[in-house]
Amino acid sequence: MKNHESRKELAEKVYGSLAGEMKVFNPAPFHCFIKVDFAIAGCPPEKDELLTTLSALLAGTFPVLPDYPVCRNRENRCLLI
Description:
single chain, mainly alpha
């Protein structure tokens, strides 16, 4: 969470002299590092929504995306969708 410090400085504080051998990078979303086939947007999904999505994928079908906000605060539209 120390975004005001460089990654190199943080690595040196944690790993000392071994930090010079490490490749450090700023945090980024998961899809920036590996190919992602499907993502559920928003805050952590509700258990039922996750199970429904995984069941559809395991059955070889594409999951039906909800027509309502996936945020826990369902009174307000999620800003991530």
